[in-house]
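Hello,

Our lab assistant flagged a job as stuck in the queue for most of the afternoon. It eventually completed. Since we weren't sure the result was trustworthy after the delay, we are filing this so someone can double-check. Below is the sequence as submitted and the structure that was eventually returned. Let us know if re-running is recommended.
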Amino acid sequence: MMFMKKIIWLPVIVAAVLLAAWSKPLKEMMMPEKTVSKNISFAVYKTNNYTSKVYDDASAKLQVSVVKTRGSKRSIVWQRSYDAKLLKEYPSLENAISQKLVINNVVDSKEQLEVVYTLTYNSKGSVMQLQDEAVISKGAKDGKLFINI
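-- returned structure --
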């Protein structure tokens, strides 16, 4: 009799364990996470005219990446490198190099976008790198970034 009671409880325990293991995937299948699109724009321009002789051989190149983060997981969703140019060849703010992006399928409640850029300056073989980033936070539909050379 005692053996029969244990056998009856065994399927109940197995069912409970399976239900617990499958509850999150089932919930995600039945109620998929809502995604949004986020608009990102940035402008690249010089803040100085760089006409002094000291800048004659000085150049800068730029790399911009959009990174989607979810917890500790990071993935690059867009990336572009701009070739090196002499500093004086970069446009002023009025004629800035501009880029507009739309990043689709962002789970706004769990993910965020980071726009990361690296400026590499070179002057007669001396190299200096500057890195900065802007976070497009939860709830924000648009992000703007101004990159000063």
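-- support follow-up --
The delay was a queue issue, not a problem with the job. The result is valid. The mean pLDDT is 87. The first helix runs from residue 2 to 30.
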